[in-house]
Amino acid sequence: MGTGGRSGVRRGKGNAEGVTAGKGNADGVATSPTATAASASCQYRCIECNQEAKELYRDYNHGVLKITICKSCQKPVDKYIEYDPVIILINAILCKAQAYRHILFNTKINMHGKLCIFCLLCEAYLRWWQLQDSNQNTDPDDFIRYAKEWDFYRMFAIASLEQTAFFIGIFTFLWVERPMTAKKKPNFILLLKALILSSYGKLLLIPAVIWEHDYTPLCLRLIKVFVLTSNFQAIRVTLNINRKLSFLAILSGLLLESTMVYFFQRMEWDVGSDCAIYKSQDF
């Protein structure tokens, strides 16, 4: 895969000492203001070995950049700073750990809240669509399907509660396992942001409904698997734990979410969940 390098940007030639922080400004080297401010307030991460780094690159005169070399693995701290965003997105879709580390640790994304709300709206619309489709009336003068806004708000609330139960299940498992898996307290705020960002696959729910066809249940299942796979990778990268614990954390979240769905069904609420969609169609 090509690097998608930009003009005026080139990698260093293997000399880690010349690119690491704190070596002075010899030979006309100037530390970029962005890298200096970031190193004072936070730490970057090497996308290969997950070690902390003070900066991602050094800014030489005449706009020539040199990527910082990791002291631990002797590889570029973040090769993705030279990549085109489309290539980064493709690598994230492929669930590559390096792409996730780049997005979670070495970039500033402040759209977690908006993305969470939009994903919940997509899921609520899917459930509302399934509910209205099962109750449709052949009377051409019947506008109930388009007028029941309360049903949509109820689907949004139910989707929010189920999503919250999923996150609580993950956090509870990781908190119980924390003394055995980590020497320091895990950053659950960062983990929450990582889980929200890795749930971007739910945005595919809207095209799955718009392009309605006989394989819609299969599409919904594939979207669910993709979202869970992304959540799994986000947990593993954020907390730097093994695959087994990440998988068990996902199972714990699904267990609590399923318990919430069962509770709603016992209350005889139309939750419009994926399971209801699968049962209502011949698949």
TrEMBL record:
Residues 1-20 are annotated as: Disordered. It is found in: Endoplasmic reticulum membrane. The keyword Transmembrane applies. The chain crosses the membrane at residues 152-176, 188-209, 245-264. It is a multi-pass membrane protein. Keywords: Endoplasmic reticulum, Lipid metabolism, Lipid transport, Membrane, Transmembrane, Transmembrane helix, Transport. Pfam families: Arv1. InterPro entries: Arv1 (IPR007290). It comes from the Eukaryota. Mediator of sterol homeostasis involved in sterol uptake, trafficking and distribution into membranes. Belongs to the ARV1 family. This is Protein ARV.
